[in-house]
Write a structure and sequence with these properties.
heterodimer; A: 588 residues; mainly alpha; Alpha-Beta Plaits; two-stranded antiparallel sheet; B: 430 residues; alpha/beta; FAD/NAD(P)-binding domain; Enolase-like, domain 1; five-stranded parallel beta sheet; 25 strands; 23% helix; binds flavin-adenine dinucleotide; binds iron/sulfur cluster
Chain lengths: 588, 430
């Protein structure tokens, strides 16, 4: 058995190495003939530039450099073509002077040598000024502002903004790959993904025998460099963090992965792959494979068996397969179990429009998404606590409870951490609600700026800080460093919302079994949410905490049978320490 | 201001300190030579097995003591002068007290076995013992654990977790059969063996053999068998840690003699926990109780009395728990061994041999008097109430599910217990 495990490990490491390795072996050759048929003006500039840099084979970094300098060149060309330059600006200035005391009208621009677009936009920007009188200086200033507005919007409108640039880089690079990856994507897919999952299982399945009989087997966790924040954990954390940074901000370095998964994506949904498809696939495999590990580890506990099967199911079906099938049928590819405010872009204009355009099913999706957080959250959280979502359904929770389980003991149990947690998670909730309110206001009013805040800028910051840095880089990248629920504990706005309900209006609690606690500390140590369970258990108090996700591990690791997750009447749910005497057990 | 000095920072001493602080502004000093901060002795095994680190076993964060104005002194008390109310310390000046609480816990027993001081032979009680065990078990292949009690089986599990082969010498004919009825005891025997522990029932240690360099090479049993090993764990019970108090005015028997208010024979001197011996034990209780929660209760009781709130030690209905490898054990009330006349019990066992339920009752009055659970968790509050109120067995069995404390979705067997009872009644066995 040990040998099988070792073979599994060696083979898995080989797959992992190839997986990372394929990113570095390819050669890239730009091929003009493979490009999209209707390039935009900016893309045309871009291709011309890239061609000029040569179509010989290059390595990846060289290729990315060339692509990016071509994008910059294209944007310069666009800018030259559309921008209102200094010369024109001066002309506008003198025209403003000559307007003298006459009220401003939009026909003001007619004698100026502006292009059609410039004319149209400037008029648009200054209609509100029409009919009013200005001093020459004020008028110049206002017009300058309008010109600045126009100039700064050029790249967004005609050029390659950062989003388009990222996409163009990825696509161009993808089309330029030559060699093994381009020729045998399916073979590599099988070798890396299928074989990788299989060998990981080969490493995990022998645990059935090696761990001994069913029961808690946490032997050696703090001796293992992977699970005790020593070198291997730190290395793994660094790799995960690097992965997330590349995924979010430099996805074009991952084109080989996108290419390899293309045939599978095509088979599944008829569409193409993307870095998000790769990520979804990796995520699902991680939940599945590490879910099997979880099933073996907790096979003595039906609660954990059922809960683990549930998160695997929701990840596989709801997060991975159903969205692909929806896409196949040209419907919005949404994850029906994800909900606002965790799914922070649910109310973004393009998503609402997408759902509305999809007709009846789209309206259903919109309604469903609203019902989830308006009705399902309060009702289910009242009945069962937030665990119904956090450790049974949610994708973030699903990854934490499977892939993240080996790291649960690394969460910070200090009072200080609890204080930070309460501030940070509720601030994120406020941020999410505020941001969404702005976005919705903009959507209905058509006005991008409210109270001096541009809703696009605010949502951009939310996406960057919360959506990417917090939920991704920190949330998962820090698993081996600070435990598997960093995001759920400190950042998730949905968890914050459910936590408030769980704390104040719910039937859920962890019951403490009278005076049986021996203060050993296993429960606190293995609480992924950093709850100091022992501090309650040793006083005989029930545990009612906003952050508890009901993973049930405290109850499982307790060697004295002290803890039980249960739903019951609200009366007496929260109480003080118990006192034991001749009169029995009294609760205060 | 009253200066309360507590010797010992275990659960008993610390409970005393905490409860005094809740009730009074007295100056409190807690002395220990084992560790700077209070930690949970019951978790020692988990540190060795890698489930936790030492830090995790501290029930309070380090800032707690200062915040609650409990002064911690990391020092050893060599002797006590009860006349002048001073403590002679191993390091530094003597310390004066107004009120003294002795909470010095226990020391592992040794029985003058030849070779018991060899390197590689040790007990397991303190943090230092654990550190020693860490050293003694480096590169170890073969170990012997002597003594079939709770610490013995923990030590066997600890060594086993490091893939060290363990021979487990138990004097009795079945594991812990002075406490566990035959069926439960047999289940544990089987379970120990299923872990590939070499369980030797009815075997005693005769001597420990030197390898010539002052290290242990093996042991010889009373039946003359020689067992090679590089480590011998001696876990044959513990005794009150009171050697430094002998030949003083303090009244001592096995432990420090106390009344129900934790008072010793000397004014302003109290004793709590493992080191204390009740002159008149509460009904159903032993004079010396080496149990975690009784230390806690005694500490609170002691604090009450020191703070002028007269109270007496009332531990209530007995309960306890343990874990034997993968099998959890809980007990409530009194399940006596051997079963006294006039008492009967219903016993159910799962065919895996890993779970059982026993409910003991008085045949005459039908009152339920005790529960024994293996591999199944029961609610303290419910069992305690049934026992205290002497609820009849028939009614208890009807409601037995209410006592179940197993996690959600776990299979429940209470109906089977009731069936067995009905069958027993049918055959007039009770
Ligand atoms: C390995 C192990 C596992 C156990 N598991 C359980 C269990 O599961 N359940 C249960 O109920 N009980 C268990 N027990 C028993 C339980 O731990 C004890 O009953 C309890 O710790 C006693 O607490 P105490 O405060 O009375 O003494 P202790 O915890 O022994 O504390 C006494 C302290 O005083 C210090 N001290 C003594 N003399 C001096 C001196 N002269 N100067 C300075 N300091 C001094 C000692 O070093 C020690 O730190 C276990 C015991 C052991 C050893
Ligand atoms: S694991 Fe159980 S016995 Fe240990 S501290 Fe927690 S509740 Fe108490």
């Amino acid at each position: 058995m040990k040998i099988i495990k070792l073979i599994g490990l060696v083979l898995f490491m080989a797959c992992l190495t190839s997986f990372v390795g394929v990113l570095f072996v390819g050669q890239y050759q730009f091929d003009y003939s493979k490009l999209s048929e209707n390039p935009t003006e900016a893309e045309e500039y871009f291709y011309q530039n890239l061609l000029r840099l040569g179509t010989h084979a290059k390595d990846k970094f060289r290729m990315v450099d060339d692509i990016q300098s071509s994008i910059a060149a294209a944007n310069r060309a666009i800018n030259n073509k559309y921008a209102i330059n200094e010369n024109l600006q001066n002309k506008v200035d003198s025209a403003a002077l000559s307007l003298m005391d006459a009220p401003f009208t939009t026909s003001f621009y007619e004698d100026l040598p502006l292009s059609k677009v410039q004319l149209q936009k400037l008029r648009e920007y200054t209609t509100w000024m029409a009919g009013k009188k200005y001093s020459a200086e004020d008028l110049q200033n206002y017009l300058k502002q309008a010109i600045n507005n126009f100039n700064s919007g050029i790249i967004n409108t005609f050029g390659l903004d950062s989003y388009k640039a990222k996409e163009l880089t990825t696509n161009t690079l993808k089309q330029s790959v030559t060699g093994l990856v381009a020729r045998h994507p399916s073979l590599l897919f099988t070798l890396i993904f299928v074989f990788g999952a299989a060998t990981a299982l080969l490493y995990i399945l022998p645990n059935l025998v090696l761990l001994g009989g069913p029961g808690i087997k946490n032997n050696g966790i703090f001796h293992n460099p992977m699970t005790s924040r020593k070198w291997l954990g730190i290395l793994t954390g660094s790799l995960l963090i690097t992965f997330y940074i590349i995924l979010y901000w430099f996805p074009y370095y991952l084109v080989e992965w996108i290419l390899i998964t293309e045939p599978f994506a095509h088979w599944l949904s008829g569409g193409t792959s993307s870095q998000w498809f790769v990520y979804g696939l990796l995520y699902t495999l991680a939940v599945g494979v590490m879910g099997v590990r979880m099933l073996i580890k907790y096979r003595h506990s039906n609660y954990h068996l059922i809960r683990t099967l549930s998160v695997i199911f929701f990840q596989l079906a709801f997060a991975f397969i159903i969205p692909q099938l929806l896409a196949k049928n040209s419907l919005p590819a949404i994850d029906l179990k994800n909900m606002w405010p965790l799914d922070y872009s649910f109310f973004f204009d393009y998503r609402i429009d997408q759902m509305i355009e999809a007709g009846t099913i789209g309206y259903f999706m919109l309604g469903w998404g609203i019902v989830l957080f308006v009705v399902a959250v309060p009702v289910f959280t009242y009945l069962y606590g937030k665990r119904w979502y956090c450790s049974w359904v949610c994708g973030c929770g699903g990854l934490a409870e499977t892939f993240g389980d080996p790291y649960r003991q690394l969460s910070d149990k200090s009072l200080r951490a609890w204080k930070i947690e309460r501030w940070s998670i509720h601030l994120v909730l406020v941020f999410a609600v505020g941001m969404t309110a702005l976005v919705l206001y903009s959507y209905f009013s058509g006005n991008a700026t409210v109270l001096g805040l541009n809703s696009y800028t605010v949502r951009g910051w939310y996406g960057f800080l919360i959506g990417s840095v917090f939920a991704g880089v920190v949330g998962t990248g820090f698993y081996p460093l600070m435990g598997n629920r960093m995001w759920c504990r400190f950042g998730c706005p949905l968890a914050a919302y459910m936590g408030i309900i769980q704390r104040f209006k719910s039937r859920f609690r962890i019951t403490t079994n009278g005076g049986q606690c021996i203060s050993c500390g296993n429960c606190s140590t293995y609480c992924e949410q950093g709850i100091d369970v022992r501090s309650y258990a040793q006083k005989g108090e029930n545990i009612v905490r906003a952050s508890c996700v009901g993973c049930g591990v405290c109850a499982a690791v307790c060697p004295r049978g002290v803890l039980k997750l249960e739903n019951g009447p609200e009366a007496g749910r929260i109480h003080g320490p118990i006192e034991i005497s001749e009169k029995g057990i009294q609760v205060f | 201001m009253n200066h309360v000095v507590i010797i010992g920072n275990g659960i008993s001493g610390i409970s005393t300190a905490r409860h005094i602080r809740k009730k009074s502004e007295a100056r409190i000093t807690v002395i220990s030579s084992e560790s700077e901060h209070f930690f949970s002795r019951t978790a020692l095994m988990y540190i060795y097995m890698g489930h936790m680190k030492y830090e995790h076993t501290k029930p309070y964060e380090d800032w707690f003591w200062k915040k609650n104005r409990i002064d911690l002194v990391y020092n050893h008390v060599e002797s006590v002068d009860f006349e002048s109310k001073t403590l002679k310390m191993a390091l530094g000046n003597a310390l004066h007290y107004d009120t003294l609480v002795i909470a010095t816990g226990s020391v592992p027993n040794k029985f003058e076995w030849p070779g018991q001081n060899l390197q590689g032979v040790q007990g397991l009680y303190s943090k230092q013992d654990l550190e020693l065990m860490e050293q003694n078990s480096k590169n170890l292949k073969q170990a012997v654990v002597v003594g079939g009690g709770l610490i013995g089986i923990e030590m066997a599990e600890m060594l086993h977790s490091r893939n060290i082969h363990v021979t487990f010498l138990v004097r009795e004919n079945s594991f812990w059969n002075s406490v566990l009825p035959a069926e439960e005891s047999e289940m544990i025997n089987k379970h120990i063996q299923s872990q590939h522990i070499d369980l030797r029932l009815g075997e005693e240690l005769a001597e420990i053999v030197d390898d010539g360099s002052g290290k242990v090479a093996g042991i010889i049993t009373k039946t003359g068998e020689k067992i090679d090993c590089g480590f011998v764990g001696l876990t044959v019970g513990v005794s009150p840690n009171i050697a430094f108090l002998k030949n003083t005015a303090l009244d001592i028997d096995h432990g420090i003699l106390i009344n129900e208010r934790q008072e010793t024979n000397l004014p302003d001197v109290y004793a709590v926990g493992d080191c204390a011996q009740h002159r008149i034990p509460p009904t159903g209780r032993k004079a010396i109780e080496q149990i975690w929660y009784t230390g806690k209760l005694q500490g609170e009781n002691c604090a009450n009395n020191i703070c002028g709130k007269q109270s007496s030690y009332q531990p209530g209905v007995f309960y306890n728990s343990a874990k034997f490898f993968d099998i959890e054990y809980q007990t409530y009330g009194n399940v006596a061994v051997p079963e006294p006349t006039g008492i009967a019990s219903v016993f159910w066992q799962h065919n895996s041999g890993l779970q059982s339920i026993r409910v003991a009752y008085e045949i005459e009055s039908r009152a339920v008097i005790g529960f024994n659970l293996l591999g199944i968790r029961y609610r303290h509050e419910v069992c305690e109430q049934w026992i205290r109120k002497r609820i009849p067995i028939e009614k208890v069995l009807k409601n037995l599910k209410k006592a179940n404390f197993d996690p959600e979705f776990h299979k429940k067997y209470e109906h089977e217990v009731a069936q067995i009872f009905t069958a027993q009644i049918g055959t007039n066995k009770v």
